[in-house]
Amino acid sequence: MSKTIDQALQNEVDKRRTFAIISHPDAGKTTLTEKLLLFGGAIREAGSVKARKANKHATSDWMAIEKQRGISVTSSVMQFDYNGHRINILDTPGHQDFSEDTYRTLTAADAAVMLIDVAKGVEAQTIKLFKVCAQRGIPIFTFINKLDREGQSPFELMEELEQVLGIRSVPMNWPIGMGRELSGVYDRMKTQVELFNGKDHSTIEVQKVEDYRDPIIKEMAGEFLYDQLCQDIELLDVAGDPFDYDKVLRGELTPIFFGSAVNNFGVQTFLENFLELAPKPEPRRSTAGMIDPMNDKFSGYVFKIQANMNPAHRDRIAFLRVVSGKFERGMSVRHVRVGKEIKLAQPQQFLAQDRDIVQTAYPGDIVGLFDPGIFRIGDSLSQGSDIIFDELPTFSPEIFAKVTVKNALKHKQYQKGIDQLTEEGTIQVFNTVSFDETILGVVGQLQFEVFEYRMKNEYGVDVQLQRMPFQFARWIITDKVDASKFRINSTLVKDKKGNHVVLFENEYAMRTAIDKNPDAQFLEMAP
Ligand code: G4P
């Protein structure tokens, strides 16, 4: 292989940053994403992403939109360039769109940006998404948003990150005042201040300073805020964690940035620091050992499948994360599970709103593949070899329903639908040990709605879903499984691979079972 091609691939890998923004609804993810896209010139006006989001409010609307547009307003990857970097932001839907896909998408990210509302602190959905990132050990960068509002003190927020999420933090910048008093942020790394100008906070001025004691800050922010800043930074310098890049990369220390997305305040410095610190695409584990992005043979894996809701177009889009080599439109690759060569025609890439046909893509990029029903979540594709990437984890469902078919004569189609939709990862299926009933498990309500809709439209089967009171699923590993132990506020079931799983109605029942069965292991993800 010639050196020039390697160098070209190296340059492409080096400049890529692929990440997801994790947050609780309303923390400002749409606003922040929009500002980032504006910096990259990927959209021209503020409001474009917002408009898209407004379309997504109710599930019924979502179905209607899917129908109109063909596929996938809900699934998106946004790509743009900034300062010589190629950035891929993976969308992690929240609200009604929250589903197991949201978790699976995180497996395709090399880093996460955790967005937190300064007043609300760490919220429920953030905790769930954080756990998935922490499990993978990817670096997590924190952006504390809405600094123009009254909120908790930065020290309280740092404490909360440690108490609730168990992660230490290192502030990269520090607010000068907060809420109505907010006059700027002091950048500890670049020793510069970013100051709001004018009462309406309409302009932002960036000024290089000696350090936080620089009289320029006093002049611009006033004596009171200046003194406060000096005290805070002195305390941080003495008692805070030092910046340790290795710990950041291992996900043990999160760099914190303060800002206000809606005012575009602190966003640019955040982006620039983030791009410097976030990792480029890393090697991934496979049956053939670690696969380096610089491997000259293309490889990748499918992490999400988005079905078309339009009955006239039953095709789907499989989202592929490129792991190594160069992807080219029309190339032939090995579909490892099926053991066949396939041609990747009509690949699509996802920009802010419109989908483009991709000609080439590189490690870190996400490509949408036209899927006539040949892909499953976790499938590996590779050029010329049979490597299989690590299986994607199965996440613990939180909502459960018993499913039955309304018309018994349709049992065959019903079974086919369940099998296929389970394989696609639309829902998880469990069978009770005692009565062989079928229980579906999901992470978000939307998954049930999609399941019902697709069973009817693709398999012609009306199903009945009856909600069950369970809230937790734990895979149980023990020498001898005894169903009689799990009768009160719990039940024993099997997943589709035959693993035993206990469903619990509440945390108390789960804790009690764990305490009473010290020899058993209860796992949050499938073994
Ligand atoms: P999400 O995607 O995380 O759900 O949040 P989104 O960006 O939609 O933001 C939620 C609300 O928070 C929006 O207000 C948005 O304008 C506001 N917001 C975002 N960033 C900031 C900030 O830095 N400061 C303040 N004060 N507000 C912020 P909304 O009233 O729901 O919508 P809109 O009418 O303002 O668009």
Automatic annotation (TrEMBL):
<dbReference type="InterPro" id="IPR053905">
    <property type="entry name" value="EF-G-like_DII"/>
</dbReference>
<protein>
    <recommendedName>
        <fullName>Peptide chain release factor 3</fullName>
    </recommendedName>
</protein>
<dbReference type="GO" id="GO:0016149">
    <property type="term" value="F:translation release factor activity, codon specific"/>
</dbReference>
<comment type="function">
    <text>Increases the formation of ribosomal termination complexes and stimulates activities of RF-1 and RF-2. It binds guanine nucleotides and has strong preference for UGA stop codons. It may interact directly with the ribosome. The stimulation of RF-1 and RF-2 is significantly reduced by GTP and GDP, but not by GMP.</text>
</comment>
<dbReference type="GO" id="GO:0005829">
    <property type="term" value="C:cytosol"/>
</dbReference>
<dbReference type="InterPro" id="IPR004548">
    <property type="entry name" value="PrfC"/>
</dbReference>
<keyword id="KW-0648">Protein biosynthesis</keyword>
<feature type="binding site">
    <location>
        <begin position="23"/>
        <end position="30"/>
    </location>
    <ligand>
        <name>GTP</name>
    </ligand>
</feature>
<dbReference type="Pfam" id="PF22042">
    <property type="entry name" value="EF-G_D2"/>
</dbReference>
<comment type="similarity">
    <text>Belongs to the TRAFAC class translation factor GTPase superfamily. Classic translation factor GTPase family. PrfC subfamily.</text>
</comment>
<dbReference type="InterPro" id="IPR031157">
    <property type="entry name" value="G_TR_CS"/>
</dbReference>
<feature type="binding site">
    <location>
        <begin position="91"/>
        <end position="95"/>
    </location>
    <ligand>
        <name>GTP</name>
    </ligand>
</feature>
<dbReference type="GO" id="GO:0006449">
    <property type="term" value="P:regulation of translational termination"/>
</dbReference>
<keyword id="KW-0547">Nucleotide-binding</keyword>
<dbReference type="InterPro" id="IPR027417">
    <property type="entry name" value="P-loop_NTPase"/>
</dbReference>
<keyword id="KW-0963">Cytoplasm</keyword>
<dbReference type="InterPro" id="IPR038467">
    <property type="entry name" value="RF3_dom_3_sf"/>
</dbReference>
<dbReference type="GO" id="GO:0005525">
    <property type="term" value="F:GTP binding"/>
</dbReference>
<dbReference type="InterPro" id="IPR035647">
    <property type="entry name" value="EFG_III/V"/>
</dbReference>
<dbReference type="InterPro" id="IPR041732">
    <property type="entry name" value="RF3_GTP-bd"/>
</dbReference>
<dbReference type="InterPro" id="IPR032090">
    <property type="entry name" value="RF3_C"/>
</dbReference>
<dbReference type="GO" id="GO:0003924">
    <property type="term" value="F:GTPase activity"/>
</dbReference>
<keyword id="KW-0342">GTP-binding</keyword>
<dbReference type="InterPro" id="IPR005225">
    <property type="entry name" value="Small_GTP-bd"/>
</dbReference>
<feature type="domain" description="Tr-type G">
    <location>
        <begin position="14"/>
        <end position="282"/>
    </location>
</feature>
<dbReference type="Pfam" id="PF00009">
    <property type="entry name" value="GTP_EFTU"/>
</dbReference>
<feature type="binding site">
    <location>
        <begin position="145"/>
        <end position="148"/>
    </location>
    <ligand>
        <name>GTP</name>
    </ligand>
</feature>
<dbReference type="Pfam" id="PF16658">
    <property type="entry name" value="RF3_C"/>
</dbReference>
<dbReference type="InterPro" id="IPR000795">
    <property type="entry name" value="T_Tr_GTP-bd_dom"/>
</dbReference>
<dbReference type="InterPro" id="IPR009000">
    <property type="entry name" value="Transl_B-barrel_sf"/>
</dbReference>
<dbReference type="GO" id="GO:0016150">
    <property type="term" value="F:translation release factor activity, codon nonspecific"/>
</dbReference>
